[in-house]
Write a structure and sequence with these properties.
This protein has 252 residues and is mainly alpha-helical. The chain has two domains: 53 residues, Arc Repressor Mutant, subunit A; 173 residues, Tetracycline Repressor, domain 2 (Orthogonal Bundle). The chain is built from eleven helices and two strands. Strands 1-2 form a two-stranded antiparallel sheet. Strand 1 and strand 2 form a beta hairpin. Helix 5 packs antiparallel against helix 7 and helix 5 runs parallel beside helix 10. It is globular, with a radius of gyration of 22 Å. The N and C termini lie far apart (59 Å).
Amino acid sequence: MFADKPATALPPLRQRRRAAAMREIVDAAERQITEHGPHALSLRAVARDLGMTVQGLYHYFPNRDALVTTLVAKAYDDLGDAVTAAVAAAAHEPAAQRFLAAAEGYRNWAVTHVERFQLLYGAPLRHYEAPAEGPTTQAMRRLSMIFQREMFDGFTTAQLAAADTRALSPTLRAYLEPLIPHGPETLPPPATALLVGAWGHMHGMVVLEAFGHTSFIGEHQAELFRMAMRDLLEDLHRRIRAGQEPPSGSRG
């Protein structure tokens, strides 16, 4: 006789029901944000949409901030998943093409999910403060690491430390030194400065488009964005090579 296979242990029924109810609440809140914008988020409206009382909703989320934190972390995760999928689709391409794929994945998600993108990067919600080192911080850090990897692929820590940047003040250098991990080390201050500047350039263009400020460019916005990202990466790598040429065979 064949031995019975051990059944996969399921969480208790009560725990599964709670998880399902929390997913329904988050889905209802996301629908409200999509329809009315993040600043119109109302626990009362979410509860009404689900046929429950606000007091009932508090059994799953103790307050508005707890729900907002979940929504922000989920939006960051969904954005990160979109960027990761875009990079994976270009896995066999050179590093520059993978960076362009990551940037375009970021842009595509933002312009497709404008209201949720506003939740992340629009005007802050009144009276909300994300928990320090909480799920929102971790999700944002994951997204940043994707771009760090693709921007600096093929360069050593020594090369990044010698990157050609304008002189950093001693206080700024000291602040940037331990800020971002880079494998077993931390990202050198010149590379951190380049990363933040490049992030600001890319993100700024996406914000302008997602919030409707470049609508006059019409259907050419994607082409303009791609051109800007290609120029951005070329300039960034030129600054790194100015310090020391990458070894032959480097994918950087």
